[in-house]
Amino acid sequence: MSALSELYREIALCRRCEIAKSRTRVVPGEGAENAGIMFIGEAPGWHEDQQGRPFVGPAGQFLEHLLTSIGLRREQVYITNIIKSRPPNNREPLPIEIQNCSEWLDRQIQIIHPKMIVTLGRYSMARFFPEKSISKVHGTAQKRDGIIYFAMYHPAAALHQQSLRQTIEADMLKITAVLSQAETVAEPGQQAQQLSMF
Ligand code: URA
Q1: Torsion of CA 159, 42, 11, 36, to 10 degrees
Q2: Which one of 39, 40, 55, 86 would you pick to mutate in the ligand 1 pocket, going by the greatest count of ligand atoms within 8 A of its CB?
Q3: What is the 81 CA–ligand 1 centroid distance (Å)?
Q4: Among 50, 61, 73, 122, which residue has the fewest nearby CB atoms (within 10 Å)?
Q5: Mean pLDDT value across residues 43-55
Q6: What topology does CATH give the domain 3-182?
């Protein structure tokens, strides 16, 4: 069994949160085990809960459109969420749920070992860009411990707020340049490196 399949098996058995009992299906994540880019959203919604797959509803369609804009298909990247069960009525994830699921996300990152982690939305950003606000940090990258972290607004934000659509599209287009720039940037000691172009 591959490391990811074993992890998915363990995630499906996890009952640490109440929401594990109310979900239809667990949504661990999906994509290539050797993906260079990992996208981390917030939590499964109704469509994801029905299918057991991340980003398959309207926000997912927009994410696929964004991926196409940089020449990628969803099978070429890895897509997951901060939490793996759908909160009832799509409420926001609770701190305890984020904490309970953090072990799963850590192990996904260890297994995939991506070059770049793209955070989608506030909850995912808060984990990798603590103390920052999304309106300031979106479209910027930092390199830490060999991984580039790049923050974006959540794709669903464009569905609710048309004015953010162009911002999200423009941020997505930076990814290719950030990746190629980051390969040539050394990390100074343990300090996070703010990539200069962005
Ligand atoms: N929104 C998310 O954050 N994740 C999904 O999987 C779907 C919608």
Answers
A1: 90
A2: 55
A3: 7
A4: 73
A5: 98
A6: Uracil-DNA Glycosylase, subunit E (3.40.470)
Q: What is the mean pLDDT of residues 16-32?
A: 97
Given this model, what pLDDT does residue 193 score? 59
| Domain segments of the chain as ranges | 3-182
> pLDDT of 143-159, one tens digit each?
999 999 999 999 999 99
Buried b / exposed e along 63-97 (16+ C-beta atoms within 10 A): bbebbeeeebebeebbbbbbbbbbbeeeeebeeeb
Beta carbon of 29 within 6 Å of any ligand 1 atom: no
Question: Ligand 1: does its nearest atom lie under 6 Å from the Cβ of 63?
Answer: no
